[in-house]
């Protein structure tokens, strides 16, 4: 079984390292340059947002105090309530119940993973 908590933390470190070297980048370049899948990049961004290390402006992410709490933090709260009420559930059910775009669900998952509030099982 993969320890997703450790993996998500490592991926966040990879994204942080890239942005510290190269500066501001759009998400697709972050994914390409880190060789992470897009969902892994989104989870890493959520993790870094919870750590108050990443901000977003006009399609670009950069290392700075986060301005994503209202967005990702709020979505993490929605996700947490769904999981609290439903228990173990699939990503598809979360998307359906939350009405959030899948990208925002992944970022919220990263936020909650950093808080150690969710366990994720990969098939």
Tally of strands:
2
> Which shape, going by the Cα principal axes?
globular
Strand order of the largest sheet: 1-2
Strand content: 5-15%
Helix and strand string, N-terminal first?
HHHEEHHH
What is the domain tally?
1
Description of the molecule:
- The protein has 123 residues and is mainly alpha-helical.
- It has a single domain (1-115), classed as Arc Repressor Mutant, subunit A.
- Helix content is 64%, strand content 7%.
- It has helices at residues 4-22, 27-34, 38-50, 69-86, 91-98, 102-114, and strands at 54-57, 60-63.
- Strand 1 and strand 2 (60-63) form a beta hairpin.
- The model has no long low-confidence stretch (mean pLDDT 93).
Q: Can you describe this structure in just a few lines?
A:
This protein is mainly α. The protein is 64% helix and 7% strand.
Task: Label this structure with key terms.
globular; 123 residues; mainly alpha; two-stranded antiparallel sheet; single chain; Arc Repressor Mutant, subunit A
Q: Secondary structure elements and their pairing?
A:
Layout: H1 4-22, H2 27-34, H3 38-50, E1 54-57, E2 60-63, H4 69-86, H5 91-98, H6 102-114
Antiparallel strand pairs: 1-2
């Amino acid at each position: 079984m993969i320890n997703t908590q450790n993996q998500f933390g490592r991926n966040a470190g990879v994204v942080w390292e890239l942005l510290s070297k190269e500066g501001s980048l759009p998400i697709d370049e972050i994914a390409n340059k880190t060789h992470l899948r897009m969902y892994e990049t989104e989870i890493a961004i959520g993790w870094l947002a919870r750590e108050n290390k990443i901000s977003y402006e006009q399609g670009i992410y950069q290392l700075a105090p986060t301005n994503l709490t209202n967005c990702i933090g709020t979505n993490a709260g929605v996700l947490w309530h769904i999981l609290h009420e439903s228990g173990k559930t699939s990503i598809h059910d979360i998307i359906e119940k939350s009405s959030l775009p899948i990208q925002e669900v992944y970022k919220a998952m990263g936020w909650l993973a950093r808080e150690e509030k969710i366990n994720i099982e990969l098939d």
